[in-house]
Amino acid sequence: MPDSHPSAVTEPIPADSVGLITPEVAHFDTPLALACGKVLPAYDLVYETYGTLNAQRNNAVLICHALSGHHHAAGYHSLEDPKPGWWDAHIGPGKSIDTNRFFVVSLNNLGGCHGSTGPVSHNPETGRQWGPDFPMVTVSDWVNSQVRLADYLGIERFAAAVGGSLGGMQVMQWTTAYPERIANAVVIAATPRLSAQNIAFNEVARQAIRSDPEFHDGWYAEHDTVPRRGLKLARMVGHITYLSEDAMGTKFGRDLRTNDLNFGYEVEFQVESYLRYQGDTFSNSFDANTYLLMTKALDYFDPAAIHGGDLARALAPAQCPFLVVSFTTDWRFPPPRSRELVDAMVSAGKPVSYVNIDSPHGHDAFLLPEARYQAIFSGYMSRVARDLGIREAR
Amino acid sequence: MMRADLELIYDWVPQGAHVLDLACGDGTLLETLSQQKNVSGYGLEIAPDGITACIARGVSVIEHNLDDGLGAFADQSYDLVIMTQALQALRRPDKMLDEMLRVGKEGIITFPNFAYWRHRVHLGIRGYMPVSKSLPHAWYDTPNIHLSTFNDFEHLCRDKGLMIVDRAVGVGDHRGHWTSRLWPNLFGEIAIFRVCQRT
């Protein structure tokens, strides 16, 4: 959650950062069958790694990203980078996911707009951009592609798969689809399925994009334009659901940008200015088709559905211990949704620990540093390292 | 080295039992039981430090307020439900006892015996609310809102028609001396009960 407009001042890279990072690209030629019935003949996945894969190859940790996330989870791409990767608070030397011990793999999911094959990529069959033709991908498709990335990197089994929000859903999918390939699962600020309210918010976001005259049924690139207003609105409404009422109140209250009311519709309240800024930034950096398909992946995720709604049965194949974390003021995926997952795991007899962290920051809390969150997260990861005999690299 | 009441409980837990530990603290008991007796199960805890300690040692712990009951846990799904030193801090200890024996086949409960002679001296002779090793808080900030005695608990079990499988007392860091076995309500500092439904 960027607090302010990025500053131009270049500061030295902190000692607890993974430092300068260069993304890499893995190309896959084996066709990937998708849940929607279509087949992706070939694709690229862009990813970053932090730390070193040990000789036993048992210290790899997979990071699964959320709705608007990407592969750049930690460190800096250049010395001029105004801010580090999106989960830098938790990944680095001495941090919760300690890169002195773990080899961290973070990728951009299929359908993304940060380098992995997605709507902005070239479609070799048509010779044009994929655009709206890019097949709808689901959480299980993502996990299937992540398994291929693991194979490519020579990782037989991850020490842990970790993810917040939509990332947590991918972790759940790993535990049931590939139980033998992960040793631990960390599911943060997630839910086993979206509520009607969650889907409703996603639909407002989609309608905002699709009704923008610049959308052109998804072929905006060919019209040399971007549905910027739609994306901006989508992000503004999404952003409201990431923050808590208290966090917004504390941050902005009813503060005005000028001293007096001006009885017009220009920006008056600070919160309006903030949301518009968030929306503008996002609409300049994110692809509308990607946003549409990622919100659909969220809506579709429901592992219990094929088991008649019985989540415990859906979790039956899982073999590894879970850590489930929620945040008290998260109203997007509130603590009872995490508790639902935990209760299902308990009735399935799976090892699980659950913590509800007191935080004022709403859903966004999973991205931020907080003393208790860090104590739990690092305590869990240390135990993972201990159980697997992973030593600190010198 | 475990607390005296935990050592006694350790002896009572059968090999390979499926256990729910209510107010599991830092997870010492569950860790020892899983390492040495192949016990499985979960701890419930509300204190942040306890939860962090459990997670660091690899004990499955669930953040949960016992006053919310055990609704999520299925009937008779545990061999044993253990609750050490928490009964007296609950809003409705009697209802928790019902819950424990709904979820588990057997329950083990420990609590500070308010009728311990030292406590009686505090209250009966000196005229102050007792403060001791087992009751370390002042009256105004104590979490212990439902203090009871060895006899009180036996009464409650009788009223509920429960069977007391075993009972013991702890004094200080030791298991009870012969005096405390003979007169538990007077010489037992910690009351330890093992109960089940009468079949």
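DSSP finds eight helices and eight strands in chain B.
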